Amino acid sequence: MQHQHRIEIPIADRQTAGQALVPLLLGYRGRADTLVLALPRGGVPVAYEIARTLGLRLDLMPVRKLGVPFHEELAMGAIAGGGVCYLNTDVVNMHRIDGPTLEAAVERELKELNRRERAYRGDHPLPDLRDQQVILVDDGLATGATMRAAIQAVRDRGAARVIVAVPVAPSDTLAELREEVDEVVCPFVPQWFTAIGCWYVDFSQVADQEVIDLLNEAWERNLQEHAEPRETTDASTSTKH
After folding, report:
1. Which residues contact 223 (CB under 8 A, 6 or more apart)?
2. Is the pLDDT of residue 169 over 50?
């Protein structure tokens, strides 16, 4: 189903993008069985706003794009935590990417993915996704390669439902993703898609430290909210749902 909602274009920044997605996700407000997973780094500020406003848990879905050599912005695939590797076979074939080139890219990006996960997560355990509704969030989609890797990773970890929420994406990418997930939320689908950054005023790179700070704030809030008396939580859940 196509979701339509007002979003000011160009989007001011990633925080604004997150707030624009909130009205489209109100059905998940406060749900104990729902988790927001951010694709780092750009998806973290967007996901933080969604999780904070809707009272949902926030965590990380580590992914890395596999860029075509000498054209790194174009994704020939992506990898995700848990050993997932998605290949965009059309791009691989079109650019005649051979096996050794592909293996070198996977090895290089896997090192960076592991470095980032250690830096961002520290000792924080991986969330249990079994029987959970997972909202995967990024700051926009182009080919959708990283999102497809993320979808496969959360399915492998037992997610019951998968929702993709992004502020901007091309119609063909969204159509393909709708075949793979339970729900797609995207308030802006430009007729002519260029780069994601073209639809933002501020699309400056998100620093590692910002990711760490936002995740730590969210994890602290998760602990506080789940420290409430059990009866209260159960009662509110049963009346809402």
Report:
1. none
2. yes
Taking only the tens place, the pLDDT of each residue in 107-156 is: 999 999 999 999 999 999 999 999 999 999 999 999 999 999 999 999 99
What's the chain look like in SS3?
Answer: CCCCCCCCCCECCHHHHHHHHHHHHHHHCCCCCEEEEECCCCHHHHHHHHHHHHCCEEEECCEEEEEECCEEEEEEEEEECCCEEEECHHHHHHCCCCHHHHHHHHHHHHHHHHHHHHHHHCCCCCCCCCCCEEEEECCCCCCCHHHHHHHHHHHHCCCCEEEEECCECCHHHHHHHHCCCCEEECCECCCCCCCHHHHECCCCCCCHHHHHHHHHHHHHHHHHHCCCCHHHHHHHHHHHC
pTM recorded for the entire structure: 0.90
**Tokens found for residue 129:** 């996704």
Distance CA 212, CA 171 (A): 32
| Contact (Cβ atoms closer than 8 angstroms) between residue 169 and residue 186 | yes
On whether the CB atoms of residues 211 and 139 are closer than 8 A, the answer is: no
Contact status, residue 165 vs residue 25, Cβ threshold 8 Å: yes
β-pairing, 34-38 with 63-68?
unpaired
Q: How many CB atoms lie within 10 A of CB 96?
A: 7
- Nearest in space to 190 (alpha carbons), one of 174, 170, 210, 208: 170
